């Protein structure tokens, strides 16, 4: 059953009620004054005119009767005039009510027109075009002050995003260089002809593993920063299904080591979308890595790519029943379910947060669902794209 809802209490509605009420009260006052003046000026005088000579009784009786008839006719005419005036006033009041609402809405629209222009321009400005400004012209009133304040805020946001981009560019070089130096020093120390003590070699291998972990963590942080605050993604047409198939092929050794069963029959190279090839490839790789890493030996993975209102990549895994409240937090950085529930404690905790950031940067979304039978279902939805006549070079064969 369709329920009737009140209109939203917008500023235009409130101004319409205010202006319409003012116009309506003005009309009511005007009609009231008109009625008072019209009704007050129709009183009948019953006194005889001065200077009229007295008449005979017979003639007086006839005159009295005639006067009575004239007074009755005059009273009837006065009553009819009064009724007509009241009906006309009621009709005029209804018309004034409608006109008051229309005039109130028109006046409210003209008053709020600069604000609507500011709202439209502000919604059009995103993280990709922070260099745009409202630049409202007009008198120095409250509306122009509001627009100038928003322009100042946009300028500060642009500077903040530019600082983020500079940090990403600088950190990519400044932080990776010392890691590469330390890794090379360990390799040189282990490659010396003199025999290396077993304890020293074990320590060096452990340090090398930690350096690799730090390198992966740094790469994840840089990718996350680039997806959230980097330059706008490119617009190359790519199929999510084919990217997922390539990711599964690259991880064939890990799948075999864990004895995982993979069902990729629903991939078939579908789910075309547009975006940055590097970021989309990293996004799909992270989804597949999450399915492989956080899976039990002998488990299963099901991958499907579908076209429709959105290009969707769905990756499902088996396992124990998970808590949906905890699953919802997995898209945040450094959030894990724990080795006792996912089968592995490896990973930096950035995989799904990178997936969420890349999907959001391309106008999509990440959905995580705890399967009722156990395990996790990861769905990435992106805006669809038409299949190009020529497959781009970035698309895996």
From TrEMBL:
Listed EC numbers: 2.7.13.3
Keywords assigned by UniProt, alphabetized: Kinase, Membrane, Phosphoprotein, Transferase, Transmembrane, Transmembrane helix, Two-component regulatory system
Domain Histidine kinase: 170-386
TM annotation in the entry: 12-33, 85-108
GO molecular function, a single term: phosphorelay sensor kinase activity
SUPFAM superfamilies for the chain: ATPase domain of HSP90 chaperone/DNA topoisomerase II/histidine kinase, HAMP domain-like, Homodimeric domain of signal transducing histidine kinase
Segments forming domain HAMP: 109-162
Keyword Transferase appears in the UniProt entry: yes
Pfam families per the UniProt record, alphabetical: HAMP, HATPase_c, HisKA
Catalytic activity: ATP + protein L-histidine = ADP + protein N-phospho-L-histidine
The protein's name: histidine kinase
Lineage per the UniProt record: Bacteria, Bacillati, Actinomycetota, Actinomycetes, Streptosporangiales
First-tier enzyme category under EC: transferase
Membrane topology: Multi-pass membrane protein
Source species of the chain: Actinomadura namibiensis
């Amino acid at each position: 059953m369709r329920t009737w809802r009140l209109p939203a209490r917008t500023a235009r509605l409130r101004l319409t009620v205010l202006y319409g009420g003012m116009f309506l009260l003005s009309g009511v006052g005007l009609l009231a004054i008109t009625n008072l003046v019209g009704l007050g000026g129709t009183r009948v005088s019953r006194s005889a005119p001065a200077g009229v000579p007295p008449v005979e009784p017979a003639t007086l009786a006839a005159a009295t009767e005639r006067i009575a008839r004239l007074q009755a006719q005059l009273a009837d005419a006065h009553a009819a005039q009064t009724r007509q005036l009241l009906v006309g006033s009621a009709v005029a009041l209804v018309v004034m009510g409608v006109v008051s609402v229309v005039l109130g809405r028109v006046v409210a629209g003209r008053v709020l027109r600069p604000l609507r222009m500011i709202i439209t321009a502000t919604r059009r400005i995103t993280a990709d075009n922070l260099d745009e400004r409202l630049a409202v012209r007009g008198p120095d009133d409250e509306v122009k002050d509001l627009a100038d304040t928003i322009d100042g805020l946009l300028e500060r946001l642009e500077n903040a995003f530019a600082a983020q981009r500079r940090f990403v560019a600088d950190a990519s070089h400044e932080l990776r260089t010392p890691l590469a130096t330390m890794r090379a020093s360990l390799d040189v120390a282990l490659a010396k002809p003199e025999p290396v003590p077993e304890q020293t070699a074990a320590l060096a291998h452990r340090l090398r593993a930690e350096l690799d972990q730090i390198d992966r963590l740094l790469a994840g942080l840089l990718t996350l920063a680039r997806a959230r605050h980097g330059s706008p993604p490119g617009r190359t047409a790519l199929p999510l299904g084919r990217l997922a198939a390539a990711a599964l092929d690259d991880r064939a050794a890990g799948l075999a080591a864990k004895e995982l069963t993979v069902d990729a029959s629903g991939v078939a190279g579908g789910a075309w979308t547009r975006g940055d090839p590097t970021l989309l490839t990293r996004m799909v790789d992270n989804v597949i890595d999450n399915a492989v890493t956080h899976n039990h030996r002998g488990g299963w993975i099901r991958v499907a790519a579908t076209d429709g209102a959105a290009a969707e990549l769905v990756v499902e895994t088996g396992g124990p029943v998970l808590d949906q409240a905890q699953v919802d937090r997995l898209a945040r950085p450094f959030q894990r379910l724990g080795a006792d529930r996912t089968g592995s404690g490896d990973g930096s905790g950035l995989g799904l947060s990178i997936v969420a950031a890349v999907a959001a940067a391309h106008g999509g979304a990440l959905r995580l669902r705890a399967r009722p039978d156990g395990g996790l279902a990861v769905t990435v939805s992106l805006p669809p794209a038409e299949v190009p006549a020529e497959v781009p070079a970035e698309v895996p064969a």
